[in-house]
Amino acid sequence: MEQPYREVFWNISYSWLFYILAAVASLVFFYGIYKRAAFWMSGWSERRNGGVDLKRLTKKVLFTSGIFSDDIMGGTTHFLIMWGFIVLFLGTVLSTIDHWIFHFLEGKVYIVYSVSLDIAGAALITGIILAYVRRYIVKRKNMVTIVKDHVVLLLLLFIAITGFFMEGLRLHANPVPWSESRVAYRVVDAIFHGSRAHLLFEHRLWWWIHSISSLFLVAYLPFSKFIHIFAAPTNLTLDSMNYTSFLTLDEREKVTTDFSKHQLVMFDACTRCNRCQVVCPSSNAREPLSPRMMIEEVGNYARGASGIPFVSSKRDADQHDKATASLGDTIWYCTTCNNCYEVCPVGINTSDIIREVRAARIESGGEVPVNVQEMLESVYKFKNPWQGSKGKRMDWAEGLDVPVFSKGADSKRCLFVGCTPAYDTRLQSVARNVVSLLEGADYDFAVLGKEEACCSEFVREVGEDGLFTELAYQNIDLFERYGITEIVAVCPHGFHTLRNEYGLMEDSAKRLDVVHITEVLERLIADGRIKPTREVPLVATYHDPCFLGRRNGIYDAPRNILRAIPGVKLVEMPRSREKSFCCGGGGGRMWVESNADEKIAEIRVAEAVETGAEVVVTACPFCFSNLDDAVKTGGYEDKIKVMDVSELLAESVLEPGSS
Amino acid sequence: MDILVCIKKVPDTADAEVILRSDGKGIEEEDLAFGINEWDNYAVEEAIRLKEKEGGKVAVVTIGTGDDEDILRRCLAMGADDAYRIDSSPFYMDDPYSVAKGLSAFAKKHSFDLIMTGVMAGDMSYAMTGPLTAGMLGIPHTTLVTSIDVKDGNISVTRELEGGLEESVRLELPALLTIQTGINEPRYVSIMGIRKVRSKEIPVLRAEELGLSAEEIGEQGAVLELESLERPPEGKEAEMISGSPDEIAEKILEIVKGVV
Fold it and tell me: Of A90, A414, A415, B88, whose Cβ has the fewest other Cβ atoms within 10 Å?
């Protein structure tokens, strides 16, 4: 019996024409890819903080875990299309090798090959059908579909269907003794009729239609949404290597381009899936910010001068500059909570892009919200955002015996109090409780006292890199002067920037061991040095501060503290841990007013009230202020109150009135 | 139009606890934050806006020490073209006359179409330096300016009066204006912006170079001498009314009845 195989170019004349068309399509493809790569490479180079995380990359790229997350149907849809596409593409490659280099597609190998391609084709078609079911039958909320999306989906569908036509027609016109492509055979049976000569004609016709549309796809790819096939894995790779767009002032003065390489790849990786907008606290509060639109808008500006045909418009580059890449005041609404980044299947860090535009806005002297300006001027003048005078920085410690470095305290460990616990009269008790708890546990530490400067985390987030650097160096100099090697930060914002950002500009800060106070308290409880003995009968829910949770992965320490307090019953909100919904206070939002009817924090408090908790506990001064205000403005005062973790722990440990 | 803005560095005492020095002639400065006088900042912004509209140059000047150069540099970052420092060591700085002598001597050496100062300085609140400087230069001046309009070599300005009244005044140039806060929204000056002008030279002028002798501007030549600073007597403490809203309302009513 004849070995199963398929003759390439069977029934096809003018095969040279195919090669000419293929050559043209490839040229267009490579030109497009070249333009895209040149665009990405035009950015400034960022520093890399690690090697490729292969495990994470495999999960995110090959298994597209980000798309499956919270959306099984969307994940399945994309998975079928993606792997259908990849297998079919590999099939074509193998066929080319078989035809030109060495012949191996015969016998059992050919059958496996043929069946695989049939399955891939079926997967692709199923995926596309699912994509339409999602859009028009299930009507998944918040999906945004534009004409270009239809072009992409229908082109794939057309290629897959004509592929089956072609195969079925071949088998009809030229029956083979082995079992092959039953489905295609039947489908063709139902559609095409006539003499063998007619079927041969139909086969030729559909072969050319299939080939030309496939080649069109190849040529079209770099100029369409399909570019994400390259941009998304590239972006996820850079992301897994922990690239940072951080520039020192000297570097920033030298860069001549607007964005970093990684940032430029981000713009091209976006497929407008809208997951960012669904989770965005600002979008949820119906403020004018949409992270998806932001990436599109700023991306259009960035691509403006790149000269990628059909993709960039020179007008975008000419009419705007980096400061106006996003028009109006939308950039100021971002809380930099990074929830959008958390859910982005392709690893786009929108807040990083927004920070860049904010920085340009500040440097260009453009519109900066008055309150933000005042905050910056306060940090410049008073070294804190609250216009508090230097003389009052230690007011919180009145009556307590707190060791201060400048007064000769002998310690290597600095309790970095932070401006808000130091100056905000409602939050000074947090600093007092923390000190009392640590002293009660014989934990060695000292504070910088009046010398402490604002950590300036939010100064950096609003884009004032110069001021951030200046204040950071004031603190770094203090750490060096007093031989400080370990920092315990009370506020997650200081914790984040001291831990992750100070080291980017100064080597000595890289060696600092920075922990958050909840980590210390958790450890002291575990070691039996802090003993929560008094019963505190409360149903509590824990609100994850973005800068402690998502930004630094600390979810369990505060929860373990709460679990250690007798009487406390911990309940979780639907959005917790990685999915935590921001209080609306990050990224300088403490100083940006919105006209929205409902405040971000009110949405969060309503969620906390839903759980039946009597108290919403947090571990961040900004979260505390925002939630506490929302409890009042939202009318929840008789339902819930806000507490800091340390406050609740102090109730269980300290004698009443001791701090 | 060439504009000169006279500025000063002052302590911010809005929220700070002000401690009098033991000699009673000054305040403890250690815990205080210093910066450009708020009124002067508006004046600089207004001058730069006028320059952006009408052309010309903006110069800023202060009588101060090397420590005061940061506010000059800040003005350069805002958009001023030149900055000068007159060395303050021979000056008796508590006397606005001494200061005005220095400023007017400086202004005479250049030719400015318009001179601006803040209405007053946040430290001593004399509100005299501007008018005195104008007097010494023999040019017209007006105070408390809230808007400026330039027309064919003249300027029309609005002045803020008591009770929400405004006055329109026309002056011939050259003239001196003292600028009221709120005339504009001063732009934010970033540290990067200040870095960009870090290498720009700030000429330092000595009193002799301006033709001023130490006797004229020093303590012995002072017209106005600071005797001592004192705290105002403490007023009666506010009474906090406690109780339920109804009780509080009741008590307030009683108090109001007592007054009426």
Answer: A90
Q: What is the pLDDT of residue B255?
A: 87
Cβ pair B191:A470 closer than 8 A? yes
User: pLDDT tens digits for B44-75?
Assistant: 999 999 999 999 999 999 999 999 999 999 99
- Pair A659, A429: CB distance under 8 Å: yes
Give the strands of the sheet with A486-489, arranged side by side: A413-416, A486-489, A513-516
- CB distance B188–A377 less than 8 Å? yes
CB B111 within 8 A of CB B75: no
User: Per the domain annotation, does B254 fall within a domain?
Assistant: no
Tell which residue, B59, B112, B108, has the closest CA to residue B85.
B59
Domain count along chain B: 1
Q: Are B85 and B205 contacting, i.e. CB atoms less than 8 angstroms apart?
A: yes
A368 closest CB neighbour out of B15, B188, B193: B188
Task: Report the length, in residues, of chain A.
Answer: 659
Instruction: For chain A, list the domains and their CATH numbers.
Output: 15-41+72-223 (1.20.950), 232-363 (1.10.1060), 382-524 (3.40.50), 529-653 (3.40.50.10700)
Residue contact A391–B188, C-beta within 8 A = no
Task: Give chain A positions within 8 Å (CB) of B80.
Answer: none
Taking residues A382-407, what's their average pLDDT? 94
Q: Between chains, do A249 and B17 touch, taking CB under 8 Å as contact?
A: no
For residues A516 and A530, give the distance between their C-alpha atoms in angstroms, rounded to a whole number: 17
In a domain, B20, yes or no: yes
Q: What is the pLDDT of residue B181?
A: 95
ipTM for this prediction: 0.84
In chain B, residues with a C-beta closer than 8 Å to the C-beta of A469 are 191
Instruction: Indicate the residue of A363, A390, A470 with minimum beta-carbon distance to B193.
Output: A363
- What's the gap in Å between the CA of B38 and the closest CA on chain A? 12
CB of A248 within 8 Å of a chain B CB? The answer is no
